Amino acid sequence: MAPFSVGIVGAGAIGRLHADVIAATDFAAVAGVADPTEAGRAYCEERGLRWFPDHQALIAAGGVEALIVATPNQTHLPIGLDAIAHGIPALIEKPVAVTVAEGEELAAASDRAGVPVLVGHHRRYNPIIATARETVQGGGLGRLTTATVLYTFYKHDAYFELAWRREPGGGPVLINLIHEIDLIRFICGEIVGVQAVTSDRVRGLPVEDTAAVLLELANGALVTVSLSDTAVTPWSWDLSSGELPNYPAQPAPVTSHFLSGTEGSLTLPGLDLWRYDGEKSWFAPISRQALPVTRESPYLRQLSHLRDVVRDGARPLIDAVDATRTLRATLAVHEAARQRQRQELHYG
Asked: Whose CA is closest to 127, among 253, 304, 251?
């Protein structure tokens, strides 16, 4: 069978990551890369990839089974709509769009045309996350009561040389916290209420650097998230999970997520399951079991899933409808902080 032919739109860091993942497989190939910049063209020449100035030219060249869209957020909707119009399934990097209305427009267009749109919340494909979801939703913790998430790390000064990262919308809520929002929805359940406080006191930029978030789930569980991109800690999924090679290995095991229920608790990324063997009492000994997991690149699993969706009609693990719910909950964090008031989430 011919290799799965994927066009990449955007030759920035994430687009290049996707190209590397494709190049390392024996089942997929890069049909071409669309990027209007000189740096993008130079990258394609260096890697021996076909270069196109924009996604329309890439699509017009033919031979593209799917698009991976790794471009600025404001371009996600028009590129996604063009892909749908040409009958080409797309994997759009998170967030699905800039606004909930745009996400809903993209989802509606996908549904009308019957052309799948997947969204790159890649953690869902991590075997650790899959095991955690199976454990929680299979009743392994009993009734979920609380979850505590630590997402604290330090972004170096060079990160902020790009102007948009110093402006509203460029802070850790929309860039980073959206991953945790989606992870909580995927493992623990739907979010129905949001409370939050944000701060910009450390860097003094017109964008938050720190946030404290309280999420209420439909099943009654409460989730707290501590977020900061100006804290010197290893306490984050990115630094603790070993998911991406550009983050260094930590000198000791680090826990970033604590999930608690009436019958047990689970930590991530270590997958330590804590339970009582006999009577449940804080005076009784508690046991720890490390759940087995086979580590594999979530980006590779995501690519394989995209192929299955396109060629075999598999149901997307996260489509535009689902991703828009994640976006809605993430934007509610900003609104809750701005209004200093709880935000209720309702889904149609």
From this structure: 304
pLDDT tier for residue 81 given thresholds of 50, 70 and 90: very high
Q: What is the pLDDT of residues 247-256, one digit of tens each?
A: 999 999 999 9
Q: How many CA atoms lie within 13 A of 245 on its CB side?
A: 6
Q: Could you give the percent of the chain with pLDDT greater than 90? A: 94
DSSP character at residue 316: P
Tell whether pTM > 0.85. yes
HEC profile of 53-116:
CCHHHHHHCCCCCEEEECCCHHHHHHHHHHHHHCCCCEEEECCCCCCHHHHHHHHHHHHHHCCC
**Tokens at residue 331, please?**
């934007």
- What three-state secondary structure class fits 300? helix
Judged by DSSP in three states, 258 sits in strand
The torsion angles phi and psi of 185, rounded to 5 degrees, stand at -60, -40
Q: Can you list the domains of the chain with their CATH numbers? A: 4-120 (3.40.50.720), 124-295+329-344 (3.30.360.10)
Q: Give residue 170's pLDDT band: very low, low, confident or very high (50, 70, 90).
A: confident
Q: Are the beta carbons of 209 and 200 closer than 8 angstroms? A: yes
Backbone angles phi, psi at 244, to 5 degrees: -125, 135
